[in-house]
């Protein structure tokens, strides 16, 4: 049986189209879902806080040691600084402006570009110890479960993340995740801003600022038993609620509560005195809109790659193959009109 050349061509085109659809789905889409090498997100938070006035502390002005209900602005920039195959080096820099204080918190992470979890860095690059945990963002299409973990840069602890349902922000469907961490402050930049010790007389002068329950433990006898100067330690606590785009993983909004409490060791017990830093802030409406727009544009690109392009290629491929099958046979040679085999001359017997 003869097969039309056009059918062979159409069949080949159909197969190629389907193969291209598979390549887009299994190769192009995973690549497009990775953290882009040109990522540079700038976000602003606003709120209020309580901060230690270092200059007042040094001058002995106990009245103004603690500044309360001061306006807080936090500027954050998350930027990919280099890419090494499936690993991205990401700087996550926060600068907190609270009253007269400026508190930096700059971190560098090595992240898997797909899962966005911390990984071992390339040789020669120093990063935070966040292996296996999220720190700066969530992956594309984040899971609606409790399987993620979070790295806290203040205490350098890794803690579980709890999935807390869904919501909608600026037209985007989001997953809600909540997590918190508490531990000794290990962030070197923050520790530089906090005194490591205080003269006993100066520490005693802040007693009127202490809550009644703390003051009951921090008696004159306890104060008298302390060395001079008195060594100080700090405990940090952070609680975050993140509203993460269901399609792209962009954290469209966050509310953050952060506190640092000063401690003294008195014999066998550690007495927590007062917060020297207590911040409550959230994403500004302008930042929310900016991130929602980012999520929308990225989501449209993902939809085109994950759905529209593969579907169109498969449909075109199937149509081409069906047409090729229907047209595969060559037509039989046409018999001239008015001619019949019965009318042909018959051989005569002689």
What does this structure look like?
This protein has 350 residues and is an alpha+beta fold. The protein folds into two domains: 1-32 and 296-330; 39-283, no CATH class. 28% of the residues lie in helices and 38% in strands. The chain has helices at residues 5-32, 54-59, 188-193, 200-205, 212-217, 220-224, 285-326; strands at 40-52, 66-84, 87-98, 101-112, 149-152, 157-160, 162-169, 172-184, 197-198, 230-231, 233-245, 251-266, 269-283. It has a nine-stranded antiparallel sheet. Strands 5-6 form a two-stranded antiparallel sheet. Helix 1 runs antiparallel to helix 7 (285-326). The longest helix has 42 residues, at 285-326. 26% of the residues are buried. The model has no long low-confidence stretch (mean pLDDT 83).
Q: Could you write a compact summary of the structure shown?
A:
The chain is α+β, with helices and mostly antiparallel strands and 350 residues long. The chain has helices spanning 5-32, 54-59, 188-193, 200-205, 212-217, 220-224, 285-326; strands spanning 40-52, 66-84, 87-98, 101-112, 149-152, 157-160, 162-169, 172-184, 197-198, 230-231, 233-245, 251-266, 269-283. The chain folds into 2 domains: 1-32 and 296-330; 39-283, no CATH class.
Q: What sequence of helices (H) and strands (E) makes up the elements?
A: HEHEEEEEEEHEHHHEEEEH
N- and C-termini, Cα separation: 42 Å
**Biggest sheet strand line-up:** 4-3-2-1-13-12-11-8-7
- Average pLDDT rating: 83
How many discrete domains?
Answer: 2
Secondary-structure content class: alpha+beta
Total helical elements = 7
Query: Per DSSP, what share of the residues sits in E-state strands of 2 or more residues?
Result: 35-45%
Largest sheet: 9 strands, antiparallel
The helicity comes to 25-40%
What's the Cα radius of gyration?
34 Å
Shape: elongated
What low-confidence regions span 5 or more consecutive residues with pLDDT below 50?
Answer: none
Find the count of extended strands (DSSP E, 2+ residues).
Answer: 13
């Amino acid at each position: 049986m003869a097969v039309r050349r056009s059918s062979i061509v159409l069949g080949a085109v159909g197969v190629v189209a389907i193969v291209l659809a598979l390549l887009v789905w299994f190769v192009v889409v995973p690549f497009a879902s990775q953290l882009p090498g040109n990522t540079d997100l700038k976000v602003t938070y606003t709120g209020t806080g309580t901060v230690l006035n270092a200059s007042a502390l040094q001058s002995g002005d106990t009245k103004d040691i603690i500044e309360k209900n001061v306006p807080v602005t936090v500027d954050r920039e998350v930027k990919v600084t280099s890419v090494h195959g499936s690993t991205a080096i990401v700087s996550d820099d926060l600068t907190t402006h609270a009253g007269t204080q400026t508190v930096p918190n700059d971190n560098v992470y090595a992240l898997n570009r797909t899962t966005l979890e911390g990984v071992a860095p390339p040789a020669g690059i120093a990063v935070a110890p966040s292996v296996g945990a999220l720190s700066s963002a969530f992956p594309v299409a984040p899971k609606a479960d409790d399987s993620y973990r979070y790295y806290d840069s203040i205490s350098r602890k890794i803690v579980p993340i709890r999935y807390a349902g869904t919501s909608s922000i600026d037209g985007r469907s989001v997953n809600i995740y909540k997590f918190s961490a508490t531990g000794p402050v290990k962030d070197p930049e923050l520790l530089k801003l906090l005194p490591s010790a205080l003269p006993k007389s100066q520490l005693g002068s802040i007693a009127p600022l202490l809550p009644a329950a703390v003051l009951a433990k921090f008696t004159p006898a306890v104060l008298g038993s302390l060395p001079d100067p008195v060594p100080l330690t700090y405990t940090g606590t952070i609680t975050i609620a993140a509203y993460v785009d269901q399609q792209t993983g962009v954290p469209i909004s966050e509310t953050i509560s952060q506190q640092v409490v000063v401690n003294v060791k008195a014999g066998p017990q550690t007495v927590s005195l007062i917060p020297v830093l207590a911040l409550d802030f959230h994403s500004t409406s302008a930042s929310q809109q900016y991130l929602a727009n980012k999520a929308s544009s990225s989501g449209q690109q993902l939809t085109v790659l994950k759905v529209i392009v593969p579907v169109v290629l498969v449909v075109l491929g199937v149509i081409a193959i069906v047409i090729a099958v229907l047209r595969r046979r060559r037509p039989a040679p046409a018999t001239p009109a008015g001619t019949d085999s019965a009318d042909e001359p018959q051989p005569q017997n002689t």
